């Protein structure tokens, strides 16, 4: 939905004169109506996307990682161990990146060796909430020691780097599927709801864009439309509104598969 006011020529009634080029503020809301969510019961439910180079954020070698961002609305059923996203599996040495909760803390791993026992960067944030929340995670390889940033409801949160190995170089492009709602197909599966799941390649969401995407918690933004507050439209690689199906609404059109009892349900967070 776009709302805008254009210049109009107004006649002053009773004064016999006219005022032209009245400048009325222009606002683009760029909203995407959606009253539904993806429901996951925490017992074998998730969505996955086949392996694709666009979802591996490294260049020709490990030394040139590419910035990326992840955003979504999420609600957990309880403060348990929940997986949000994972590219590849640590159990078969194809891990590239993953986001998950352990109780009241959310973890972000950027892996070098394809697993969670070798070289990797790990940052954690205290986030025990089980209410609906809008989260954004960005990774900028320009400074691996603090290149992971986290926003909750558009507010920047302090990141604590709990592991950063000196021998860490960068991610490797492995052949591994992208899991949403889990980090392994048999463990750390999200019990709760998701909607407006987005990913950007070569774009680290800025604080200003985080505020725009959150939209004061009142609307879901259409990430394919640019504005003066948001420039990630051409960098979007995944967009799951979970409006009426599990289709990818980005211009990339990734094929997706639902596993278990993952289903579209009502229950918008805003």
Classify the fold: give the CATH topology.
Jelly Rolls
> How many distinct helices?
1
Distance between the termini: 17 Å
Radius of gyration over all CA atoms, rounded: 21 Å
The helix-and-strand class reads mainly beta
Task: Summarize the entry for a quick read.
This protein has 270 residues and is an all-beta fold.
Main attributes of the structure:
270 residues; mainly beta; eight-stranded antiparallel beta sheet; globular
How would you characterize this protein structure?
The protein has a single domain, classed as Jelly Rolls (Sandwich), CATH 2.60.120. Strand 1 and strand 2 form a beta hairpin. It has 1 helix and 20 strands. The longest helix is centred in the C-terminal third of the chain and has 8 residues, at 207-214. It has one helix at 207-214, and strands spanning 10-12, 17-19, 36-41, 46-49, 68-76, 82-87, 97-102, 105-111, 120-126, 133-139, 148-152, 155-157, 160-164, 178-180, 182-184, 187-189, 191-201, 236-240, 257-259, 263-266. The radius of gyration is 21 Å and the shape is globular. It is an all-beta fold and 270 residues long. The model is unreliable at 1-28 (pLDDT under 50). Strands 3, 5, 10, 11, 12, 17, 18 and 20 form an 8-stranded antiparallel β-sheet that branches.
